[in-house]
Amino acid sequence: MNPIFSKTDKKFNVIILAGGRGTRLKPATEYLAKPLIKLGEERAIDHLIKKYEHIAHKIIIGIGYEADLLENYIRGKYNKLNIEFSREDPEELHGPGHSLMFALDHVNSRYPTLITFCDYIVEDVFDVDNDAICVCDKGTESVLGTYRTIVEAEEGIAQTLKDNFDEEIEYGFTGIAIFHNTLLLKAITYDYGASTLCLYAEYEQIIKDYMQNIKTSVIVLNKIYDFGDPKTLEKTRRKLDGHSE
Q1: With 90 as the cut, is the pLDDT of residue 243 above it?
Q2: Range of the domain at 20
Q3: Is 86 helix (H, G, I), strand (E, B) or coil?
Q4: Quick one: which of 141, 131, 216 has its CA closest to 182?
Q5: Which residues sit opposite 226 in a β-bridge?
Q6: How far apart are CA 195 and CA 235, in angstroms?
Q7: How many CA atoms lie within 13 A of 62 on its CB side?
Q8: Residue 209: CB partners within 8 Å, gap ≥ 6?
Q9: How many Å apart are CA 210 and CA 136, to the nearest integer?
Q10: Is 55 a domain residue?
């Protein structure tokens, strides 16, 4: 069975946002893009591509920091896949919302779109046949850093996203989202791009605007591994190497 389950065998634009500097991971990212960090026998980007290639019409990878090294690695290893690169100047990176604007220039609007950050490795099999955002909670075996954004949901439907000011939370947002109306996603994102907020367009706000128009389900993940800082990187490596905590 494919690592992602789709009853309808739909194909997607798969966007992997991988352009950041990985500042919190230094010194591991001093001369290496975060997606090239080793996790088990493979690099992070290998886990991501192998996870999503089964549903991908096209994979779009947003790159910036150490872009040449990352692009050459991917092109050399995955030359038979339909992969495009959305390149940004690493000195002009302004967060995932900004990077998403550039990545959407490469999508085919006839296909739905799945978006993921580069520092979340998912072992769950999950359904991609509906509009959804993926969340996690602290009661799973996952390895997770600090929840920066949380999701409020009712009866399995996402209601809103908000900043985390409360330790007693139900769901943390993983950054993974599934949009079946790519035209609407592009319209919302480009509206931010045309505004005075364009350089700081928030990914979470784009999703919130999309959710106001499209009913968006919540998918709870149980095996998702973060490596945003040295502590979670070490834990994730132990998990993927098959060691218990």
Answers
A1: no
A2: 12-240
A3: strand
A4: 131
A5: 120
A6: 41
A7: 31
A8: 188
A9: 20
A10: yes
Q: Structure tokens of 89?
A: 């100047």
State residue 93's pLDDT score. Answer: 64
* Residue 17 DSSP label: E
- Domain-located, residue 245: no
Residue 62: CATH number of its domain: 3.90.550.10
The residue behind tokens 């990187």 is 233
* Dihedral angle over CA of 35, 74, 203, 187, nearest 10: 180
Within a domain: 204: yes
Q: Reply yes or no on whether the pLDDT at 90 is more than 90.
A: no
Q: Are 227 and 20 in contact (CB under 8 A)?
A: no
Residue type for position 72? N
Q: Quickly tell me which residue has 């998702």 as its tokens.
A: 224
H/E segment holding residue 233: helix 230-240
Distance from C-alpha of 173 to C-alpha of 149, rounded to nearest angstrom: 6
Q: Which pTM value belongs to this model? A: 0.90
Question: Does any domain span residue 98?
Answer: yes
**Residue 58, beta-bridge partner list:** 13
- Segment 91-126, tens digit of pLDDT: 666 678 888 989 999 999 999 999 999 888 888 889
Dihedrals phi, psi of 45, to nearest 5 degrees: -65, -30
Total tally of structural domains belonging to the chain: 1
Which of 193 and 126 is assigned the larger pLDDT? 126
Interval 210-228: pLDDT, tens: 999 999 999 998 888 888 7
